[in-house]
Specification:
- The protein has about 210 residues and is of the alpha/beta class.
- It folds into 2 domains: about 10-55, Orthogonal Bundle (Multidrug-efflux Transporter Regulator, Chain: A, Domain 2), CATH 1.10.1660.10; about 80-210, Response regulator (Rossmann fold, 3-Layer(aba) Sandwich).
- Helices cover about 40% and strands about 15% of the residues.
- It contains 8 helices and 8 strands.
- The protein has a 5-stranded parallel β-sheet. A 3-stranded antiparallel β-sheet has the order 1-3-2.
- Strand 7 (about 155-160), helix 7 (about 165-170) and strand 8 form a beta-alpha-beta unit.
- Helix 1 (about 15-20) crosses helix 2.
- The chain is globular, with a radius of gyration of 19 Å.
Length: about 210
């Protein structure tokens, strides 16, 4: 008798986390936000639809590292990790060119969509997240509301760079607290100031920890 191997159409949150390379807590957060489709058993356990996991896996982020400052010297602090979420390819290239000139070692991940950004952040949050708000499929508003609850971003500085004014942002439901909003055209000098502040604060915290 021929045996038939039927692939499960669902998986547990732990299995989904392993497939996606993120924590179980992140999978639960994505389920609650609707990024992953799931249902609950009679016993209250979540079962994640496998096709929604596969859809995320097909959206693997494209990572781009700034060539001029990607590596730090031995015994030096690690590069500043920056993620830029921007669906306009020309603007994303402009970000990469400008950030490559920053004075500190910087590693930049460029994301063309909010969903690929969420997947990458689930595997480790950046020091600085710069995002547009108007994007297709999932906009920056939805992404930031999901990330507001994400433990991976507890120590991340988030900046929204947008062409929307205050009234338009309010009409979309506003943004979570603690997010700095800067107006387009992209204020690269201000972004560099923010990055320098993050690096300086990191050094203070490292020294304080060492002294303790």
């Amino acid at each position: 008798m021929t045996s038939i191997n039927i692939e499960k159409s669902f998986c547990t949150t732990r299995e989904a986390a392993k497939l996606l390379g993120v924590s179980v807590g992140t999978v639960q957060l994505w389920v609650e936000s609707g990024l992953l489709r799931a249902w609950k058993t009679a016993g209250g356990h979540r079962r994640v639809m496998r096709d929604s996991v596969d859809q995320l896996l097909r959206k693997e982020p494209e990572l781009t590292v700034t060539p001029a400052s990607a590596a730090s010297l031995p015994n030096q602090p690690r590069p500043l990790r920056v993620m830029v979420v921007e669906d306009d390819a020309d603007l994303l290239r402009l970000y990469q060119a400008k950030l490559a000139r920053w004075p500190m070692p910087t590693k930049v991940a460029g994301m063309y969509s909010a969903i690929t950004a969420l997947l990458a952040i689930g595997r480790g949050g950046p020091d600085l997240l710069i995002t547009d708000l108007n994007m297709p499929e999932m906009d920056g508003f939805s992404m930031l509301r999901i990330l507001h609850q994400a433990p991976e971003l507890a120590h991340t500085t988030i900046v929204a760079v947008t062409g929307l004014d205050e009234a338009a942002i309010a009409a979309k439901g506003g943004l979570p607290t603690g997010i700095l909003v800067l107006a387009k055209p992209i204020p690269f000098d201000r972004l560099q100031e923010i990055a320098v502040g993050i690096v300086n604060q990191s050094r203070v915290l490292i020294h304080a920890h060492t002294d303790a």
